[in-house]
Structures are given as structure tokens and as C-alpha cells.
What does this fold into?
Amino acid sequence: MRPKGRTGRTLLAIALMAPGLAALSAVPAVAAPASLISVASNRCLDVVGNTSTPGSAVGIWDCNGQANQSWDFTSSGDLRTFSGTRCLDVENGSITAGARLLIRECTGQSNQKFRLNANGSVTAVQSGLCLDVVGAATANGTLVNTWNCNGQTNQQWRAGAGPGPDPVCSVNPANPNSNTAVRKVLCYLHSQYGNHILAGQEESTWNGGPEYEMNHVQRNTGKLPALRGMDQATTDYVGRAITWWNSGGIPEVAYHMGAPTKPDTYEGSQMAVSINAVLTPGTAENNSFRQRMDAAAANLQRLEDIGAAVIWRPFHEAGGTWFWWSKEGGAQYVRLWRYMYDHLTRTKGLNNLIWMFGTNGSPNGAFYPGRAYVDIGGADTYAGSGNYDPQNAMYNAARNAVGSQVPVALHENGPIPDPDRLQSTNTRWLWFMTWNSHFLTQHNSIAHLQKVYASSYVITRDELPNFR
It folds into this structure.
């Protein structure tokens, strides 16, 4: 594994050592480093972008146990991160309320000295001002500056520790009964959103076997993708999904469901059917629809039985007019989605699904089923061979379509967006999912594939934390 400082490492401490305060019972005196958790939001003090570059700002983000959220109070009053190589720093030594907090190389100067107080506040020694989550906000990405100490919870911090996704993660799955694996995976995905992109690869089953794409990636890069894409409509995928999960990866399952009463094939998925008939109990269409959902549920249940979380991606490319589920517009699509959600979660009792809502290349909020039914949003495109554009306009449109509560992924692609351009254009797809066959092998040069999988911005399977 190449070191990137972002896998789910185990923190070694459960509290902070504050200089000169060990005798105060309100201040725990246990070994460091540890995460610093904002009492107001349950989010961690975080170096923005997970970069050790001097001058990087600090804010709050879902706790993930990574190096940019690991802090160590030293005996001299430094607040160090990145294994002690960087210090928290009040910009330009300012003693004015609202001064920015950054990380810099450690200098020992007074603008890098801090004190942990008995009430949980952290004071900049030079100014006497407190570390303050700006505007008392609780959202991911909110910056932390200095401000007049006021005793409010946005100025109070507690120590925390834990491997991988932090147990105080505040992300709520769409399904309130979701199992532990779903919660761990979702917390991790949210922690990476905006900081990294997960590599994903769709399998085929007709190019000499279902390992064709995985072998191509591994043979040319030495790595495997973090996500493996499969489809309910193809041959039995469950064994491969179980192996992938047990090997440390995340399985994603789509379903090119044939129109009810029509063939359950890719070709059948493009045939027309009345959605009113599909949703009306007692019709042939409704009976067919429920039978197909039950068959999918049986496979998904096998994965739940071994403790696996699954990214479930039904009714993809919403907004397009080629698949039956999208031909009648947004309102009918939403009815269909919610019907399936209720059937799989409430009737069938599946609690291991992460619900992925994916639009086509022109995201349309009219198709969005709502936060109560969706965990991840996204869009897709098949740019021309060798076109490694980050698709910034589509990313922003996808975000607008689903709002700010769920991250968005590039849920299908041909050419993989260039990691450098993703960062320079602030195009923060949660993952990419390269389509199978020639979309991988011909639309992406070997040199580009190697660049992608070697990038510190791209997360591969070996770099995921342990969700099991």
C-alpha cells in the first residue's frame, strides 16, 4: 500500500493532555494524539482538503480518524497535526477576533501556542481568544477562527478516538433502521466527499468472465477499485459481491429491470409500460414488478446475512426517455422509487442498502425522490474517448438537483476525469464508476489509468478502512 495518510487509522488516545492543567478534574489527562470534536456539531477539527501544505485552513468535518483530524497538545502548548509535522497557527499573529486559523511549519512562536480550558474551550495564548466555529454553524466545511470567548457550544471541544469512521458521525441514513455496516460506510463516504474521489469499476460477464475489468485495472496499475459495480439483471452476482466485501471493498448493485410483464433484460428495460398499472395492486404489471423486486431482495438479503452494506442503484439515468421508469416524467418516477423503497425496506426488511439516486447527464430535480428516500445522488456521462474532462457543469447541476444534504457521485462514466483537473476546478464527485468493456479499455489510455490509480486524490480498495 502506498502511504497517503488517509486510511482508517486507529487513534491512540481518548483525550488531550493540556499543559499545566493535569490537576483539573474537568480536563482529562490521557495520552495524545486524538481528534478534537466540536460539542455543537459532533464534527471534528479538520485540516481542509486533508493536505499538509502550509497555509491550509481548518474547519469542521465528519470525523473519520485520518491524519488531518489527529491533534496533539504538546507540553510546550503546540497543537500539532500530521504526525507532529504541522502546528495550528493564528494567521499573521493576529490578536483580533475573527483571525483565521491555519496550519504552518512549527516555529515555537506565541501565535502557535494554545491552552485547553476546564470548560472545553481552547484559547489562543497570544490573544486570549477562543477557537470558534464560525457563525455557530454545524455544517461540514465550516471554518474555525478565533473569537471572543463566550462559553457557547461552538467554542467547546471534546476529545475522541476510534478507528475508521468515527462513532460520533452525525450522518443519518435514509432508512432509520440501517445496520451498522451501512452507517460505517456512509460516515466514511461523507468524510471523503470534497477531499477525495473513490475509484469504481463496473464488471461485465461476457468478456471472458466477470473479472475482465478488474484484471485489466490490476494488471496495469497494481491496484483495484474501491467500488465494484454489478447488476441484478445479469448472472448471479452475489458470490462476487460477498468476496468483494470480505476483501475490503464496497459492492454497488444496479438493476436494468425490464418493464414489468416485458422481458427482464436490458432490451426489456427500454420498453414502455404504464406506471399507473405497475403501481396498482392486482394488475399483471404490479404482480410482475413485485416478483422482480422480491427476486432482487433475495439476493440483497444474502449480502445482509453476511453483514455487507450495498450501494443500491435502481432506476438510474433518471430524466432520460430511454428506460421505462423515466418515460412518464418526474412525478411518476418519484412514485415508483418510493414504492420500491417501501417494499424493500419495510415489506422485505432490508437494512443493508445505501440508496443511490442517479440522473442522466442533465440532472433534473423533478425526479429527486427526496432525502427520506435517498442517501447518495449523482449523474453520468459518456464523454468521447480520451476526454478526461471533470464535468464540472454536470457536477454542479447534480448538486442543485438533490440539494446539499447528500453527496453526489459520477455513477457511470467512460473516460475517467483527470484527478488534477477535478481538484483545480473544485469538481468534487464522491466516486467515479467506469463502465465495462471498451469504455474502460479503449476510452482510457494505459498511461491515464496509471495516473488515476496512482493519484493521492483517488482512493483504491487497499486504502479503505475496515467496515466489517
